[in-house]
């Protein structure tokens, strides 16, 4: 049975605030006036067909690409005016769960989780590291895998450990890029639940990029649909898809929904 999603959103605080963002590569205008506000504690899903600029948007939010025009404010800071050191500091407050963020095959699950922690917080005692590794593994429901190698885990378990590795640095914002891609339907559901559990347990705000409408419906407090370089519809899942607009109906029809 589908679990009820409970969100604690503070609409008086925005963690991401994007205004009139434009980005072109040569003559190709990828983003043509994007406005997006993500509130504290909110999951926002960005939906759009391949090549519509979803990854470009994430890169601009994290300061990896510069916009041509517009402002991007993340956790109270204007991303475009930050120097490389300030950007690095800001990025530590953002957790990235990307499709290609693979685990280190030669390390156990414990080793994979200790690695970012020890690299970024050098003053922790061994007991503190251990406590944090066990806590985050418990949060993703995989404490029993602590001494296993990544090769011994299923695809879904690896995904969960990847999310745990991001969570261990206690990010305020999570960015999920195609979190359910390549997973079977049951594992997809587990990952969708995990995204919601992370939101509740860690009070994170998230941007979730996906083509998967089940994922959008289950995890998104709000859904923003990117088309022709703009958010053509934004609202709850129902608000976005309850329309006669043929382009939205086509997107819905060609994406399987449970
Ligand atoms: N650095 C770059 N230089 C030139 N063109 C780029 C660059 N980065 C992205 N693009 C172009 O911008 C467009 C949007 O790319 P983007 O990767 O954001 O799409 P996407 O919506 O994430 O697609 P997908 O769902 O397939 O991952 C594409 O046409 C891509 O070729």
TrEMBL record:
It comes from the Bacteria. InterPro entries: AAA+_ATPase, ABC_transporter-like_ATP-bd, ABC_transporter-like_CS, P-loop_NTPase. The keyword Transcription does not apply. GO terms for molecular function: ATP binding; ATP hydrolysis activity. The keyword Secreted does not apply. Residues 16-253 form the ABC transporter domain. It holds the Pfam family ABC_tran. PROSITE patterns: ABC_TRANSPORTER_1, ABC_TRANSPORTER_2. Keywords: ATP-binding, Nucleotide-binding, Transport. PANTHER family: PROTEIN TRIGALACTOSYLDIACYLGLYCEROL 3, CHLOROPLASTIC. This is ATP-binding cassette domain-containing protein. It comes from Mucilaginibacter arboris. The lineage of its organism: Bacteria, Pseudomonadati, Bacteroidota, Sphingobacteriia, Sphingobacteriales.
């Amino acid at each position: 049975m589908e679990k009820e999603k409970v969100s604690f959103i503070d609409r008086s605080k925005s963690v991401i605030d994007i205004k009139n963002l434009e980005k072109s590569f040569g003559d190709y205008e990828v983003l043509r006036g994007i406005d997006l506000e993500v509130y504290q504690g909110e999951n926002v899903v960005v939906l759009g067909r391949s090549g519509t600029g979803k990854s470009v948007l994430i890169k601009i939010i994290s300061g990896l690409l510069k916009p041509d025009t517009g402002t991007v404010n993340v956790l109270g800071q204007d991303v475009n005016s930050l120097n490389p050191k300030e950007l690095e500091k800001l990025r530590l407050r953002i957790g990235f769960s990307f499709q290609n963020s693979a685990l280190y095959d030669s390390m156990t699950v414990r080793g994979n989780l200790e690695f970012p922690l020890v690299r970024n917080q050098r003053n922790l005692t061994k007991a503190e590291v251990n406590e944090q590794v066990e806590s985050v593994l418990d949060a993703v429901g995989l404490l029993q895998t602590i001494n296993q190698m990544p090769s011994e885990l299923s695809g879904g378990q690896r995904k969960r450990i990847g999310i745990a590795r991001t969570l261990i640095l206690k990010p305020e914002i999570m960015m999920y890029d195609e979190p359910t891609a390549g997973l079977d339907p049951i594992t997809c559901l587990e990952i969708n639940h995990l995204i919601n559990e992370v939101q509740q347990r860690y009070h994170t705000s998230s941007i979730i990029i996906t083509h998967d409408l089940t994922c959008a419906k289950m995890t998104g407090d709000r859904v923003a649909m990117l088309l022709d370089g703009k958010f053509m519809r934004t609202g709850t899942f129902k608000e976005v898809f309850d329309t006669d607009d043929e382009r939205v109906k086509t997107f819905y029809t060609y994406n399987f929904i449970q």
